[in-house]
Known about the structure:
- By secondary structure, this protein is an alpha/beta fold.
- The chain contains eight helices and nine strands.
- The longest helix has 19 residues, at 52-70.
- The radius of gyration is 18 Å and the shape is globular.
- It starts with a strand and ends in an 8-residue tail after the last strand.
Amino acid sequence: xxxxxxxxxxxxITVFSVWISLPMNWIEASPYKNQQEENxxxxxxxxxxxxxxxxxxxxxxxxxxxxxxxQQKTDEDKAIILDLDETVLNNRPFLAKLAQKKSSFNDKxxxxxxxxxxxxxxPGASEFLQYADMKGxxxxxxSNRKKxxxxxxEKNLKRAGLPQTDQGHLxxxxxxxxxxxRRKAIExxxxxxxxxxxxxxxxxx
Length: 205
C-alpha cells in the first residue's frame, strides 16, 4: 500500500544532517572553484555526517516494525525488500578514495571497487538481517547495480556473512532503471512488510 506515492512500511536508512549543516547563503557564496571540487566537498560532508549510530538507530526502528508485522496473520510469506548500497553495504571507503583523487563518480572505478567484494555491512544491517532470517522472513536485495556485477555482489554479500544471497533473493538492474517492476514481482507472491533504502526514490511509484 502507498500513501502520497510512498510505500507503507518504508524506512529511510540515511542521515538528514548532510545538507542541514550548510549555511543559508551557501549557494550564492560558494567557495569552490568548480563543479568537481564542489562534488568532492559534498562527499566529505556525507562522510562526516553519516555516523554509525544513525544507521544502527535506523535498523533498530526496522526491527521494531518487523516484530509488529510478525504479529499480523497472512496467507503469504512475509518479506522485506532492501536496497544494497548505503543501506546494507558501506561504500564510504570508495567515495573517500574518489575525494582524495579529486575524481568524480565513474563506472570504471565503481566496477573495480565492486569486483573487490570487500564492502562491509553498515552498522546494524547484519544483525537485523540475521534476525529477520531467523524469524523466517524472505529477504530480497533489490539494487540498481548492473548485471555484470552480479557475481562480485553475491560474493561480497556471502563474504560479509549476510543471509539469503542466492539468485532468487539478489535482484540487480533489469532493462528498467526504476525498481518498481522488480518490487511488484516480489509482491505478487509475498506480503512485503518492510522496504528499506537510503533514498526516497526506492519507495516511490
